[in-house]
Design brief:
5-stranded mixed sheet, 10 helices, 8-stranded mixed sheet
Length: 414
């Protein structure tokens, strides 16, 4: 996809007419070749670039390169056992490199690895915000912003130099700077490098002063764009080949990324599912509160009923267990208990049957019942009905007497 590179040549300034900015621009094709380039001001850039173009809607396709004069680049050792600890400690470590209030500076960091130096860039917040605001006024929202010198190659013991008409960009592993050509030799002499890489390469451009750099091996780059004198083309190629260096757009200045269409499609479903989950949780809470209130009400009613049946009882701790004890029901045993056997017997009794006595044996888990039925056939039918309900039933005695047949019946577990 094409990419637009904008190299700011100055800070963005504002007056009554709006923002002003001198800039170079360059558009590359998918294969890295140059489609077009030039130099203009902010108004010319607005007329040249149509922000409605599809590929410019993606922030990653717009790269801004700012002057190294306004960005301090350093590499520093930061203690910490994790990336989070190192990131929190960075402002305190780099504070010694700046003469102004660290709170007025924006700090951007490169990759953070434990035990490795961290590359940091500091820029005045007001400068950074002015560059971003002036571009936003012409409809451009960059995804990457870096300093010129950050895109120069760096190696151990080497200083890289990119020469321009009046300036020179310098980069080592731990420092970067922009100096006037007149101060280049002084800057090189202050460095402890043993190799000098001229990325736009003619050592003769340094004239006789190169002789002052004793013991310094001079290397030359072979980049065609740099040889042709196009600094922006060289920097753009470096960005395309090696990435964006330290991206200044971090923290509060992090660019907005386009929403993934797949996620956008399912975002509504996820929101609806979350809403239903919330409704379900609320319903469960309400149901739990209602069940708790019902349990309290039934507990109070059962205690009132127990006191009504057993008014002499002084203390009620567990209505169910106390009632089971009164009725002879075994709590947690294998048998059904008195009340269950009585319920089964009552369900099996037919018309004309009368209960004259009941006796429950807890040890044998057996209910004894004395009954008067109309005939022996009714006694047999009662025994069969109880067995059909899954219980054992046995007639221990049956005697004809006036008014019916007296039957003694035993009911036990299956």
């Amino acid at each position: 996809m094409p990419k637009l590179f904008i190299r700011a040549l100055s800070p963005a300034t504002r007056d009554d007419e709006g923002y002003h900015l001198e800039a170079e621009w360059l558009i590359t094709e998918d294969d890295g070749s140059i489609r077009a380039n030039g130099q203009t001001d902010l108004r010319g850039l607005a007329e040249l670039v149509d922000p409605e173009t599809d590929w410019l809607q993606t922030a990653d396709n717009l790269v801004v390169i700012v002057p190294g004069d306004y960005v301090l680049g350093v590499s520093c050792e930061v203690p910490g056992r994790s990336a989070g600890q190192i990131r929190r400690a960075l402002p305190f470590v780099v504070e010694e490199f700046v003469a102004t209030d660290i709170e007025a500076m924006h700090l951007a960091a490169g990759e953070i690895q434990r035990g490795e130096p961290v590359r940091c860039c500091l820029v005045d917040r007001s400068l950074l915000e002015d560059w971003l605001v002036c571009l936003s006024e012409i409809g451009l929202s960059p995804g990457h912003m870096t300093a010129e010198a950050e895109l120069l190659p760096a190696a151990e013991g080497q200083v890289s130099v990119l020469l321009e008409a009046r300036r020179a960009l310098l980069k080592t592993l731990d420092q970067s700077a922009t100096v006037d050509r007149s101060n280049l030799m002084m800057a090189l002499e202050s460095l402890t490098a043993d190799k000098l890489l001229l990325v736009n390469g003619d050592p003769a451009a340094l004239d006789f002063e190169l002789e002052r750099l004793e013991g310094l091996t001079v290397l030359t780059g072979d980049d065609e764009d740099a040889e042709a004198g196009s600094t922006l083309a060289y920097l753009a190629n470096r960005w395309l080949a090696d990435g964006d260096g330290v991206n200044l757009l971090q923290g509060a200045y992090l660019p907005k990324r386009p929403v993934n269409p797949v996620w956008a499609r399912w975002q509504g479903v996820a929101a609806l599912a979350a809403a239903w989950a919330g409704v379900g949780i609320i319903a469960m809470i309400v149901e739990g509160l209602w069940a708790g209130a019902q349990a309290d009400r039934l507990q109070a009613e059962s205690e009132a009923l127990y006191r009504d049946i057993y008014p002499q009882e002084r203390r009620i701790t567990n209505v169910r267990r106390q009632m089971q004890a009164k009725l002879g029901v075994r709590a947690g045993g294998e048998g059904l208990g008195f009340t269950e056997y009585l319920a089964e017997l009552s369900a099996a009794l037919g018309q004309g049957a009368t209960v004259t006595g009941l006796n429950y044996n807890d040890a044998r888990d057996e209910l004894g019942a004395d009954l008067i039925v109309r005939s022996y056939d009714d006694a047999e039918s009662l025994q069969t009905a109880i067995k059909d309900r899954g219980l054992n039933a046995g007639i221990t005695s049956a005697e004809q007497q006036e008014g019916g047949v007296r039957v003694r019946l035993r009911v036990g577990g299956a």
